[in-house]
Design brief:
The protein has 5 helices and 3 strands. It has helices at residues 3-13, 16-28, 35-42, 46-58, 77-88; strands spanning 33-34, 62-67, 70-75. It is elongated and about 50 Å long.
């Protein structure tokens, strides 16, 4: 991906409603969700949702298909994978940036009896 494409994607996600919609679609999986259900789950009026879906679509983050009288939207996983790949491309000279953690150690504020 080129820088201008990355900027378009990140700009689309840099808005609370669009980020919430995208996360819903990622959770829904490849089958996606109808626009009306997205509006219900995200608590976004349908007129506003149309604008947000258009922006996500323009950025290549979502795709749509017609099923009967419904428009089904789904996340475009290859675009998100390309963005993640671009962001991590030169990360830490190929060495893992994530510190190893010992899952047996308790974390602060965690109950010991769980």
């Amino acid at each position: 991906m080129e820088s201008k494409d990355i900027i378009r994607v990140l700009s689309a996600l840099a808005q609370e409603s669009r980020l919430a919609v995208y996360r819903l679609l990622v959770q829904a999986g490849p089958e996606g969700l109808p626009a009306g259900r997205i509006a219900e789950l995200a608590h976004i009026p349908p007129s506003s949702l149309s604008f947000h879906l258009k922006e996500l679509s323009h950025a290549g983050l979502v795709s749509s298909r017609q099923e009967s009288r419904f428009v089904i939207y789904s996340a475009n996983y290859p675009t998100m994978n390309a963005v993640l790949g671009y962001l991590a491309e030169n990360c830490c000279d190929g060495i893992s940036c994530v510190p190893a953690c010992d899952l047996t150690e308790s974390q602060p504020n965690e109950r010991q009896d769980l």
